[in-house]
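> example.struct
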């Protein structure tokens, strides 16, 4: 019984975290209450939703939480969590066109940062003269910029699928 409860809470925490992450990526205002739809939910996911709906709605700042059997509404962002697809209809909450422009601008900025770090780390003179700590720091900055770029790319893909 305890193991089952742990699995349920773990699933709920992952769901809430994923919803919050998508909200942040898509620049949904923190106070905006949006609906959450679950599609292709397995039995465990359905059980978790039924027993923890109030907790999920409150912590993920949702207006509602429902299971979806039909088509995904247009203007909705989709993501996958273990046994279900989460769908967040955001078209009425954010300006889709300005969000697209913002994402493209952020991606271009990250691409420039990555190029700058790669050029610096590819410069033999820099590598020969810079202290090891500086080189390590530059490599870490490059890795961080690449991770941010990946996340922005994923956000753009979710956004394009929604629009």
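> example.seq
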């Amino acid at each position: 019984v305890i193991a089952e409860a742990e699995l349920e809470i773990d699933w709920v925490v992952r769901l809430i975290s994923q919803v919050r992450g998508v909200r942040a990526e898509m620049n949904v205002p923190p106070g905006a209450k949006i609906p959450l739809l679950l599609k292709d939910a397995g039995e465990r996911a359905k059980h978790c939703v039924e027993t923890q709906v109030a907790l999920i709605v409150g912590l993920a700042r949702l207006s509602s939480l429902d299971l979806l059997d039909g088509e995904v509404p247009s203007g909705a962002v989709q993501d996958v969590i273990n046994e279900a697809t989460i769908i967040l209809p955001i078209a009425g909450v954010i300006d889709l066109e300005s969000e697209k422009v913002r994402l493209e601008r952020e991606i271009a900025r990250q691409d420039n940062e990555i190029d700058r770090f790669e050029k610096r780390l590819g410069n033999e003179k820099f590598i020969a003269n810079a202290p090891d700590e500086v080189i390590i720091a530059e490599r870490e900055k490059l890795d961080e910029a690449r991770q941010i770029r990946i996340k922005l790319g994923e956000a753009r893909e979710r956004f394009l699928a929604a629009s």
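> remarks
The longest strand covers residues 62-68.
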